[in-house]
Amino acid sequence: TQLLEQSPQFLSIQEGENLTVYCNSSSVFSSLQWYRQEPGEGPVLLVTVVTGGEVKKLKRLTFQFGDARKDSSLHITAAQPGDTGLYLCAEFPSNTGKLIFGQGTTLQVKP
Amino acid sequence: DAGVIQSPRHEVTEMGQEVTLRCKPISGHNSLFWYRQTMMRGLELLIYFNNNVPIDDSGMPEDRFSAKMPNASFSTLKIQPSEPRDSAVYFCASSLASYNEQFFGPGTRLTVL
Q1: Rounded-to-integer distance, Cα B8 and Cα B98, Å
Q2: What DSSP string describes B33-78?
Q3: Chain B residues contacting A, CB < 8 Å?
Q4: By three-state DSSP, how is residue A47 classified?
Q5: Does the structure show a pLDDT above 60 at B4?
Q6: pLDDT the model gives residue B97
């Protein structure tokens, strides 16, 4: 079973700071998804990356897929309190419909 | 359009009692997933259905857990008998097909005393 390791586990920063969170695996990802989960709600899909080296931007969020497709990062520029939440990476292991999640990074952005 | 609907939102019960969690997927979605989220184990897939048929239930913890999908618009997850270690947030999600974007409900927070 492929394990997704996310780091850091917890991150507390001030509004306006930049941050990067990581998702790594010992195996190659077929594709990788990033979700954000706000307190009291279910996860919401932010982006799917498929191609090695791919970079996708969603406003202040930049997602990068490693060239070897074994790692991914999420960079947030000028974080805002509304970015607070749990950031999860997830992957479909090959030939299954099961979505496997990492443990997540809990981000707190203080005003 | 309504998203995935789950009920109840909160459930507090005593050990040994039967618990039934309910889910209404997004209309037109053919895949439905049940997850459990805890601090220790994160978000884990319990079971998923395609076209109302259970495809993979390898994540179901033990025989105390069962899930049904009698039609395309309704699914239940039942725990009988419940135990304190079952306390968690249970999410239902649906998607057009098993490899498509999953849409999660708001979850049911279960506390077993």
Answers
A1: 25
A2: EEEEEETTTEEEEEEEEETTEEEE-TT--STTEEEEEEETTEEEEE
A3: 4, 31, 33, 42-45, 48, 50, 55-56, 59, 91, 93, 98-99, 101-102, 104-107
A4: strand
A5: yes
A6: 84
